[in-house]
Design brief:
Helix content: 40-55%
Distance between the termini: 71 Å
Number of helices: 8
Largest sheet: 3 strands, antiparallel
Radius of gyration: 20 Å
């Protein structure tokens, strides 16, 4: 879209200024790749909750971080503007994508489950994810199970901040 001498990308949730319209639009592979990422990110904007496609956004964030590192134009800030997800959350998603290859992710579980097991022993991360899926554990349960050597009830008194004194 060209308006008042500028080229804009318009999506449902954001309008991003690219450059003055009087200059030719560079159609480099980098620009095309960046625009494709922004388009994908904006299509998932506003989707959240247990069924959100966190794996796709994690992969996009990881691609931006690994491909462009600290590039002034192609960065997580631009991805945040297109997706409506904070830069900090995108960094966390990128770290999760780097830790779990797509084949290792348990997509029935939330990003919270994956983050919890990342904090522990990396060699046992997949084991804990599979335990959580089989036993129907929440993110809190998986954290407590890791701390309690497999039993989420061992430290369940920590959830409410009380404990019984005998």
């Amino acid at each position: 879209m060209i308006t008042a001498g500028y080229i804009f990308i318009v999506t449902d949730t954001c309008m991003q200024h690219l450059q003055p319209a009087s200059l030719p639009v560079p159609h480099t592979n980098v620009t095309k790749e960046w625009l494709k990422i922004l388009t994908q990110a904006s299509s998932f904007s506003g989707i959240s909750g247990k069924k959100s496609p966190w794996g796709i956004m994690a992969d996009l964030a990881y691609k931006v971080v690994s491909r462009w590192k600290n590039h002034p134009n192609y960065n997580l800030s631009g991805l945040a503007a297109a997706s409506g997800i904070s830069v900090d959350r995108l960094r966390l998603l990128a770290r999760t994508a780097a830790f779990f290859l797509p084949k290792d992710r348990v997509m029935q579980l939330s990003i919270g489950h994956h983050i919890e097991v990342m904090r522990g022993d990396p060699d046992r991360a997949l084991y804990w994810l599979h335990q959580a899926r089989e036993k129907g554990w929440s993110s809190k349960d998986i954290r407590l199970a890791i701390d309690g050597d497999g039993d989420p009830r061992k430290y369940s008194w920590l959830r409410c901040g009380t404990m019984s004194l005998i």
